[in-house]
Amino acid sequence: MSEAKWYVVHTYSGYENKVKANIDKTIENRHLEEQILEVRVPMQDVVELKNGVQKAAQKKMFPGYVLIHMIMNDDTWYVVRNTRGVTGFVGPGSKPVPLTEAEMAPLGIRREDMVVDFAEGDMVQVIAGAWADTVGAIQSMNMQKQSLTINVELFGRETPVEISFAEVKKL
């Protein structure tokens, strides 16, 4: 199996988040989690001055574009290309061209793999994000996405939650 690379997809203006949601849903429905690893709409923090008041906001770094970390093959190309709101991959003709390491560096997307000292079944505590201070057992780990799935109690039921390696510590 070939290595996953980052590709850029052109979308209708204003449809970036909708395209991301549609691709994420398709990945789940078609079980392509191992081939399409991540879909991102790069954002940047900006300070706006409105009516004399400074306000922090997030703006899209590249309006009209979505980044996708995927293994390029006929299935993944077809799924992404035929997603509502997508006009095509960035590259000559219909041939997608992956981003280089030099192009990825300013986007803040890290390449180095994180070494972790936990495995499936271990108990971990979430130390950041929406699930901070939650404790759960690791159900599965995805080394390529640098994430793990734990079950947390939500409304009295066990619910699987995907969390980045950087957001947990082993108990």
Q: What is the number of helical segments per DSSP (H or I, 4+ residues)?
A: 3
Q: What summary fits the major beta sheet?
A: 5 strands, antiparallel
Binned strand content: 35-45%
How many strands in all?
11
CATH architect. name of the largest domain: 2-Layer Sandwich
**Count of domains:** 2
Question: What is the CATH topology classification name of the largest domain?
Answer: Alpha-Beta Plaits
Backbone structural class? alpha+beta
Order of helices and strands: EHEEEEHEHEEEEE
Write the CATH homologous superfamily of the largest domain. NusG, N-terminal domain
Q: What are the low-pLDDT stretches, counting only 5+ consecutive residues below 50?
A: none
How far the N terminus sits from the C terminus, by CA atoms, comes to 35 Å
Described by the principal axes of the CA atoms, the overall outline is: globular
Task: Characterize the structure shown.
The protein has 171 residues and is an alpha+beta fold. The protein contains three helices and eleven strands. It has two domains: 103 residues, 2-Layer Sandwich (Alpha-Beta Plaits), CATH 3.30.70.940; 48 residues, SH3 type barrels (Roll). The strands form three sheets. Strands 10-9-8-7-11 form a five-stranded antiparallel sheet, with no helix packed on it. The radius of gyration is 18 Å and the shape is globular. The chain starts with a strand and ends with a strand. The mean pLDDT is 84.
